[in-house]
Amino acid sequence: MPKSSSKTTVIKPNVNKGFLYEVKKNWALFVMLIPGVLVLIINNYIPMFGIVIAFKRYRFHGSFASSIIKSEWVGLKNFEFFFKTPYAYTITRNTILYNLLFIILGLVIPVAFAILLNEITNKRSAKVYQSLMFLPYFLSWIVVSYLAYSLFSIESGFINRGILSVFGVDAVRWYFEPKYWPFILTFFQLWKYTGYNTVVYLATISGLDTEYYEAAEIDGASKLQQIRFITIPLLKSVMIIMTLVAVGRIFNADFGLFYNVPRNSGQLYSVTDVIDTYVYRSLRNTNNISMAAAAGTYQAIVGCITVFTSNYIVRKIDRDKALF
Amino acid sequence: MDKSFEVVDGSNIEKNKLHKSIGNQVSTTSNFFINLLFVANCVLCIAPILLIIIISFTNEKELLVDGYTFFPKTLSLKAYDYVITAGDTIWRAYGVSILVTVVGTILSVFVICFYAYPLSRQVFKYKNFFSFFAYFTMIFGGGLVPWYMVYTQLIPIKNSIWILIVPYLMNAWYMMIMRTFFKTTIPESIIESAKIDGAGEFRTFFVIVLPLCKAGVATIALFCTLAYWNDWWLPLVFITDNKLYNIQYLMYQTLNSIQYLASGSAQFSESSKVLADMPSESARMAIAVISIGPIIFAYPFFQKYFIKGLTIGAVKG
């Protein structure tokens, strides 16, 4: 029976009876798609067309559609205005540099951890380590901001009261001193995601064929040689793919990290403000729609280019791993 | 066919590893240092969580005098007592979180499975088009401003419970995982024979396909549960009505202004008295502890299914 069915599928494209015929024949499958398509249209596709807001002086005219149509067309004025502010440089620099740092550390540390975790002789303790390291991934950035606060609070934080005061060092006003924040932000980013990434690489390592290792052992290869010449080369494709996906998203910062952990402290903006937080503040706090739309569109377009470029490279390396 | 799923099964990982280390193992010394490294790292991961748990059990006066510490002199349950008896705001927010998580997860699982199923079917001619229709949203977006306008002006569900649910109903990434799951678990012949027995598409889907894909559905459901429970972004952007604060957003407000909690219960008692009695520092941490409670309890499930999902995603079809 399955044989005949596969035959009909092969023949069908030749007898092209058009869209309506398909809908009639497989109406149930089309009905199933409706909720998802509706959500995608509302949540993703209409906002895509809403990108014209960035080229207009947006004013509310009764409804969404008429506001977009009736608002005055200003061309690239909003962008000109945005790029003239000092923020444009700061937020672009912060977004890219932080992401670069996170990409490098998010590759090296988890791969090293995964390899080491795999070598631990007591498998039960390896399992416990994995579970404990994975836990931070499941906490929200709000909870993480509480953890940060309990450590860095100026009056009662553990670091000021429990460590610095013991050594007779003056309390540091953490939430007002920009110089510490590149380290603090990087710490919490790693704190939250290292376990997750380690698990990704560990799952790949445990899926590797044991025969390679058996053969290497017979040939007298040491553990270090096995890691160097078997594990790392076999992990390479996963490493490259994970990195390129992250590079594609280099223009998108993790809003939760940059907004919640420094508690949106104004004194820290020079090192904590990224495109996403700037757009949010322009829209919700200063209510500067044109500015927010210009910055958001700039991010969307450059981000799209980076995704396409990195996907193109992924495709060259391994067709199956490409997103599209 | 099931190989990709077996690989991620915990016991199998174990077996593979043991197998691997039959011959030469790392020396006892290096094993010791590797263990030391991981113990240190685990302490680093757990210590901050432990700190807020300890703060929530510390006597309020001690917190004000000595600051936050891992080894408090006097313990107290006053924070939890306060949260349980006086925290109407907190229970309301907790209720909103539970409602949104339950309703959101159920709806979202349906939307995702319904979308993924046709795309997994050989006979469905437009599967490439609809796959791309979903993929594309992962590549390009309109940004925050038009998205905000859609939910405030086009479909004004701002400040309603629906705004906390609708935006997360469809997720292209989970959909792809589910599609791969359907594709690898359900042979076309099963569907074909159900059809011959007279079952319609919907009946086949609910009676045959879904029960066979329980593990995949569970994975997606846990992803959605975590996304809804941990969400603070939607209320941050859209909610101004404090009746609709969820627990995460309530925590956000409380961290910014500790008086927020008191202002909620002020409607029920004299505000100044409540403010003076309130163990504010420890109560704040108690809310954080209560908010992560369900995640800790469900953690074994979460861990298992997340690893499963990771690997399914990796074998993308």
Greatest interface and its participating residue counts: A-B, 117 and 119 residues
Which value, in Å, is the CA radius of gyration of chain A?
26 Å
Q: Biggest sheet of chain A, open or closed, and with what strands and sense?
A: 2 strands, antiparallel
Report the β-strand fraction of chain B as a percent range: under 5%
Order of helices and strands of chain A: HHHEHEHHHHHHHHHHHH
Give helix and strand order of chain B, one letter per element, not per position.
HHHHHHHHHHHHHHHHHH
Counting helices, strands and paired strands, the structural category of chain A is mainly alpha
The low-pLDDT segments of chain B are: 1-23, 266-270
* Mean pLDDT value of chain A: 88
Derived structural class of chain B: mainly alpha
The profile of the biggest β sheet of chain B is:
none
Structure description:
- The complex is a heterodimer of chains A (324) and B (317).
- By secondary structure, chain A is mainly α.
- Chain A has 16 helices and 2 strands.
- Chain A has a two-stranded antiparallel ribbon with strand order 1-2.
- The radius of gyration of chain A is 26 Å and the shape is globular.
- The two termini of chain A are 34 Å apart.
- With 317 residues, chain B is mainly α.
- In chain B, α12 packs across α18.
- Chains A and B meet through α1, α3, α4, α6 and α7 of A and α2, α3, α4, α6 and α7 of B.
Keywords:
heterodimer, A: about 325 residues, mainly alpha, two-stranded antiparallel ribbon, 16 helices, about 70% helix, disordered N terminus, B: about 325 residues, globular
